[in-house]
Amino acid sequence: MGVGIKVEHLDAWFGKTQSLHDISMDIQGSHATAIIGPSGCGKSTFVRCLNRMHETIPDARVSGRVRMGELEVYNGTAAVQIRRRIGMVFQKPNPFPTMSIYDNVAAGLRLNGFHDRRRLDEVVERSLKLSALWEEVKDNLRKKSGASLSGGQQQRLCIARALAVEPQVLLMDEPCSALDPISTGKIEELIFQLKEKFTIVIVTHNMQQASRVAEFTGFFLMGRLVEFDRTEKIFTTPSDKRTEDYITGRFG
Amino acid sequence: MANRALGAPRLPGPQPVAESKVITDTRTQAEPLIKAGSGHVSDTLFHLAMLGCGVCVLGLVGLIIYELVRGSNLSWNAFGWKFFFRSEWDPVNDQFGAWAFVYGTLISSLVALFLAIPLALGVAVFITEMSPRWLKGPLAFTTELLAAIPSVIYGLWAIFVLVPILRQYLEPFLGKYFGWTGLFEGAPYGIGMLAAGIILAIMVVPIISSITREVMTAVPQQQREAVLALGATRWEMIRTGVLRNARAGILGAIILGLGRALGETMAVTMVIGNRPEIARSLFAPGYTMASVIANEFSEATGDTYLSALIEIGLALFLLTIIVNILAQILVWSVTRGMPARSNA
Amino acid sequence: MPDPSTPGLPSISFWRRGKNVAATLGAAAAVVLVLLPLVAIFGYLVYKGVGSLNWAFLTQIPKPVGEPGGGMANAIAGTCWILLIASCIGVPIGIGAGIYLAEYGRNRFGDLVRFTADVLNGVPSIVIGIVAYAIVVLQQGHFSALAGGVALGIMMIPTITRATEEMLLLVPQTIREAAYGLGVARWRTTLSITLRTASSGVITGVMLAFARVAGETAPLLFTAFGNQYWNWKINQPTAALSLQVFTYAISPFDEWHRQAWAGALILIILIVLAVSAVRFAAGRGMLKGTS
Question: Where exactly are the structural domains of chain B?
Fold first, then answer.
């Protein structure tokens, strides 16, 4: 059910500085793709270009072509519509602090005009189950605020919130870097299950995580895509020396 | 070759979970829940609306300037520059000159500052540097409370409490021992320039004090510690480590206080005597620019009369603007370099 | 006399120690001198006003000159009415300008607006009264609650704008991004997410502005003008608490002086309530860093 994303010759700029150079990549639907690379290599920027979050920064520019199935992400479609189809989970969990758990999950739907009470209840329950948070919060949905949960729970709440609008792709920008190992493990489990229904792109600086979770991996270095292949191959027999240097820890 | 450091093949790779959690998908088909539009138009409209509010603010100041200039046109044409240097105020014969009011405004504000500056600085220094921690909050709160009292209530209290005290105790005392200065001559009516100066001082202390506190807090702790480490007493530390660094800001606070004093209307009107006279003695009644507008505007017959009053309003406006801008620049120069608070 | 613990260095001289003590005493004296009028004012308000605060005072309109009794009911109502009109003008424009400055105005034009708002803040209230007179009273040909409301509304704007901008800037960018990531349009994010998160601080700003203009008299002198009778119409002269206190205070009648104190007491209660609510809200909610 997840749809693939085709990236063709993507460039991105922050003002005058070019941060992505000619990225081309074919992200498989219903699979998880990891994006790895040293700090500052453009991984986050790349992923933010996929759902057009990059352009929310003043003076930011993108050129190139991104397609999600039949849909052109850039040419002619409104950013807002793209972001409904491509969801995002951020590095630091960011639930809406003034809203309850229920309201957080329902936020994406409500803010887009969907108000049917009964179906909202269904969607909230389904999303929380999908993100493995349901059992822990089902008795306090409306009483507890989103910000009162633990870090790991907050992140799963953010995942549920992103899933509630039923995107086809889920982008995750270092979702576990602010979490403890147990919460990290739970989220990695989650990704296994979500893969079947959604396409997942996960940015991570943790190579073990990439190998645990993703079938495909792309290695970025200084704004360029150095190598993109099946995860096994990248981590056992990388084609590019730079990739090998990175995964053996010689730099970055 | 890559294996060793990473050990990837040895770690469990992507795997199905042990207990199969079935994801129940109760939804029938991929019918989008959200059908709304692109939001483009709404975004632009919203931006314009908010911009409009910002423009409103500009427009309001422009409107103020426009109306004041337009209203004072008549008077300007009749009297020119000299309007502010003549003291003839004769509505019957249509002769107007604002010097008495300018004088009254300046003198009352100066008296107020003279009294307020030491008090406000003392309060600020005490609260920031000397007060025990548990006292800081309540003291700060109470000085802010002083700022919240409306002018008319200050005036009410001044008429019935301050003025009798002045008339019966303070002014006779001052007249007897300091009359030789020429500042305390004449009959002690109570009502007059001194009363206005005192009540203005009370009103202006909170502003000077709170801005001074702000700039004093903006001075980094390291500065204080540097002075203390040289073996200074607390007062010496305050003087060299804090006040000296914050002096531009303190000057700004004082000027802000001046700005407030210049524009203050009600309390002054109620105790200054409202006579357009110029006298050296502080016991004499006087008149300020704001007071004459307050007292005579609604009864001004005749276009020149009204225009003269509006011209005084224009002068007051320009005076307070210049003073306030100067003050802002000074305060900004201190608090900008050392942020008093950090944003989350 | 050399200090044995630090041989070679003179001890802290009597002079220096004396100055230190004097400074502390001086500062403490300043605090006392400043608090004295505060206590005195509140004390007198209660002392002189409380006796006259009765049901009659709160429900009757003023009696003709010379007759004892009567109250300020119309003035209390008038103040509420004028403040309502002022809020309708000041709050939307103030919050709108604040939103503009925080979300769209990080540029030169925004700086200009910010500066102008500060300028507007410093304009003496009597001058605002003149302008309201020119644009409302002169056009309509009579004094009115509307004119008073316009004057006070204009005065509310800078305080509300500054508070709104500050509170919106405190909302972390990542919260906005979370909403964008869900496909929410920018305007919707600003209103339903950002503003909502900052709401308690914004409300505080509004209440501060409210408390500030509630006690204003000068701008009402020739806009609302005052009224000895009931008035609910927006286009007629209207009584206001602050105006009434002023008129009574400067009058020669003892009876009116007594009522002036009572009116002043009510006015200060209103304002203290608003300021305390602000302090209370500052204790909870998103108000880090505001003084």
Answer: 75-80+95-337
* Tokens, residue B235: 């007062």
Strands A216-221 and A224-230: antiparallel
Tokens 């309007």 locate to B83
For residue C161, what are its two tokens? 């704008």
- Separation of CA B77 from chain center: 34
Joined tokens for residue C218: 């000068």
**How far apart are alpha carbons B9 and B7 in whole angstroms?**
6
CA B332 to chain centroid: 14
Chain C residues inside the 8 Å CB shell of B151: 215-218
Which amino acid is it at C144? S
Please give the single-letter amino acid code of residue A133: L
Describe chain C by its helix, strand, coil percentages, rounded to 5: 75, 0, 25
Strand partners, C225: C238
If one counts every other C-beta atom within 10 angstroms of the C-beta of residue A189, the result is 17
User: What does the angle CA C154 – CA C156 – CA C160 come to, to the nearest 5 degrees?
Assistant: 125
What is the rounded average pLDDT of the residues B211-231?
87
How do the domains of chain A map onto residue ranges? 5-94+168-247
Contacts of C122 in chain B (CB under 8 A): 259, 263, 320-321, 324
The alpha carbon of residue C232 is apart from the nearest alpha carbon of chain B, in Å, by 22
Fold category of A5-94+168-247 in CATH: Rossmann fold (3.40.50)
- Closest approach of chain B CAs to the CA of A17, in angstroms? 27
Q: At what angle do helices C73-99 and C254-283 cross, to 10 degrees?
A: 30
C-alpha separations of A22 from A76, A173, A226 in Å: 21, 21, 11
Q: Which two tokens stand for residue A87?
A: 């969801």
Asked if B20 has any chain A CB less than 8 Å from its own CB, the reply is no
Q: Are A206 and A246 in contact (CB under 8 A)?
A: no
Which residues make Cβ contacts (< 8 Å) with residue B16, sequence separation at least 6?
Answer: A192
Chain B residues touching A193 at Cβ < 8 A:
17, 21, 23
Per the listing, tokens 């205070």 go with C249
Question: Do the beta carbons of residue A197 and residue A228 sit within 8 Å?
Answer: no
Of C158, C119, C108, C125, which Cα lies nearest the Cα of B328?
C119
B-to-C residue pairs, Cβ atoms closer than 8 angstroms: 270
**Measured between alpha carbons, how far is A156 from A173 in angstroms, rounded to an integer?**
14
Q: What gap in Å lies between CA B84 and CA B318, rounded to an integer?
A: 14
Full pLDDT tens readout for chain A, 252 residues:
579 999 999 999 998 999 999 999 999 999 999 999 998 889 999 999 999 999 888 889 999 999 998 889 998 788 888 898 999 999 999 999 888 999 999 998 888 888 889 999 999 999 999 888 999 998 988 888 888 999 999 999 999 999 999 899 999 999 998 898 988 998 999 998 898 889 999 999 888 899 899 999 999 999 999 999 999 999 999 999 999 988 888 765
Closest-CA distance, A200 to chain B, in angstroms, reads 13
Between CA B249 and CA B333 the distance in angstroms is 7
Which tens digit of pLDDT belongs to each residue from B281-305?
889 999 999 999 999 998 888 888 9
DSSP string, C126-137: HHHHHHHIIIII
H or E element: which one contains A171?
strand A169-173
- Name chain B's partners: 3 or more CB pairs within 8 A: A, C
Give Cα separations from B339 to B150, B217, B218, B320 (angstroms): 31, 9, 6, 27
* From B1, B6, B16, residue closest to A207, measured CB to CB: B6
Number of helices (H), then strands (E), in chain B: 14, 2
pLDDT > 80? residue B337: no
Determine which helix (DSSP H) or strand (DSSP E) holds A172, and give its type and residue range: strand A169-173
Under CATH, which number does the domain B75-80+95-337 receive? Answer: 1.10.3720.10
Q: Is C75 on the interface with B (CB under 8 A)?
A: no
